[in-house]
User: What shape does this take?
Amino acid sequence: MSSARGIDAVERVYASHYRAFCRVATAVTGNAEAGRDAVQEGFARALASLDSYRGEGPLPTWVGRIVLRAALDNRRRLAHEALPPDDLRASDWDPVLPHPGRDPELAEALASLPPRQRLIVFLRYFADLSHADIAELVGVEPGTVSATLAQAKAALARRLAPEEPVPIEKEEAR
Amino acid sequence: MTDALDSILLDRFAAQADPLAPADWADVERRARALHPSGASRRRWRLRTVVAVAVGALVVAGTATAVARHFLVSTSNTIIPLAADGTVPGLPGMDVLLPVSPSAHSPTAAQCGEAWNSRAPGTTLRWVGALDPSGVRVSVGGGRGAGLRIGPLCMLRFFLDDGRVVMAHAPWTARGAPRWQGAILQLPEAIRAANLRSVNGVVNGDGTVECRTRCDATAPATTGSAPPVARGATHAPPPCSLVTAAEVEAAVGVRPRHRTPLPGNEGSVCTWHQKPLATLADIVLSLQVARMTREEFEQALSRSTSARPIEGLGESAYAFDDGRLLTVWARGYALTVTNRTDTPLETGRRIAAAALARL
Assistant: This one.
C-alpha cells in the first residue's frame, strides 16, 4: 500500500479514530499527554512503514496496534519497564485509570478484574469502541468480546451498581 | 440493570477523560519524515502522480487563463484575479472570491508561514512536499494604488526546479488565514530570478515551511495610515448607478442577470454577472469608482510598465492586458472597468464613456 492513496487512507483513520486511540493510549500509558504522544508517534510509524501493510486486516486495526505499541513504549520509557514482547497479550496492555484518585471505587473494581476483562472494559467504556472494533484490535471473535464484557459487567455490578430496590409486594410478603 | 450499569460505567469513565489536545496531522507527517527520511518508494510514486496531475492541470487550464491581471478591491471584499497555468491540489483557484476582514493588524511573514503549516489542507501540504521546491518566499501582501486596495494577504511562492512557481494566497482574517487559494505559474525568467533572490524560507518534506529571514515583515502600508484616496471617497457615486443594464448588454452582448455592489471606503466596485457571484469567472463586467487627484492617479500608473496610454477618453486613461482593464481619470474620479469580452478595449471604452457621462 505504498501510495499517496495509502497515505490518504491513514489520514482518514487518523481523523476518525483520533479520539478513541487517544483514550486507549491514555489508558495504557496512564496519562493523557503520553497517550496523545503515542498516538502521534504511532501514526507516524504507520506512515513510515506503510509498505509493510498488505491488507491482511482492516487498516484501523493495523494502525491501532502500532499506536498501542507506541503507547507501551512510552509507558516503558516513563516507568523504566522492560520492553514487552512483540506478540502482545492482553496482560501487556494493562490499562489503568488516568485519575484513579477521582474515583477510587471504580479503580478498585477494575483492579479486581482479570486482565482481559479489564482491557475490554476499558476499550468499550473509556475508548468507546464498538464490539467489532474491540474484537479486531484484541484479535478475538466478536462473540468473545460480548461474553467477556458480560462477565466483567457482572463482576463490576456487584461493586458499582446501586442496590436493586426490593419490590413492595415482596417486602410485605416476607 | 444492564443498561443502568452501562450508563454508570460510561459516566464514570467519562470523568476520567482529560480535555483532548487537537488532532495534528502535520505533526504526524513530520515525525514520519524523521523516521523515514528517504521514503524512497512512496516518494517516487507520489512524484509520478503529482507530475501527472500537474501536466493534466496545465492542459485543462491552458485555455482558461483569459483573466485580467489586476486587483479590484474594496474594504470588505477582495478580488484577486491572476492568470494561472495550473491548479494546486486541495486548493481553490485564485479566481474564487474570498472575503477579507478589514483587519487593523497585518500578519508577519512568520505568522503566514505558521498559518500555512496549520491551515493548508493535508493534501496540499503533501503535494508541495513531494514537489521538493528549492525554496519558498513567505511574505505578506497588501497595498494600495490607483484607488485599489489589496490585503492583507499571506503569500507563499514555492520555486520549483523546472521553472514553475506554485503560488498560495490566503486573506488574513481575525481567525488567521483559514482559506488558501493556489495556482501554478510559469514566470518569465527575469521575474523568476528576481523572486529567487527573495527566497526567505525552506520547505520541509511534508510541505510545511520554515521562515528563516525577514520573518517580521508585514504588509506594506495596508492599514493604519490614511489612504491617499480616502479623502472624499464617501462622495464617490455608487458605480452601479452609473451604467444601466441595457448599456451593459449593448457593450458585452449579453444581458446580465445579477448586479452586485461591493462597498468600500476607497471606491466601491459594481460587478455584473450571469449567475450568483462566487468566482471571478462569473463576472462579466466590473466598474470601480474612486475619488483621487490626478497626481495620485498618474503617480500610481507611472510605476507600471504594462500600462498603455489611451487617447480620447476622460482626461487621462490607460489600458492593461489588451484593454481587459481600463482605468480613466476625469473630474477628480478614477474609473476602472474590467471585462473579458472578445473586444475588451472597445467594451471598456463604451462602459467608461457611459459612466463618465453620469459623473
User: Anything to note?
Assistant: The interface with chain B takes residues 2-4, 6-8, 11, 14-15, 18-19, 22-23, 26, 32-33, 36, 40-41, 43-45, 47-51, 97-99, 102-103, 106, 121-122, 125-126, 153, 156-157, 160-161, 164 of chain A (CB under 8 Å). Residues 4-29 of chain A form the longest helix (26 residues). The radius of gyration of chain A is 19 Å.
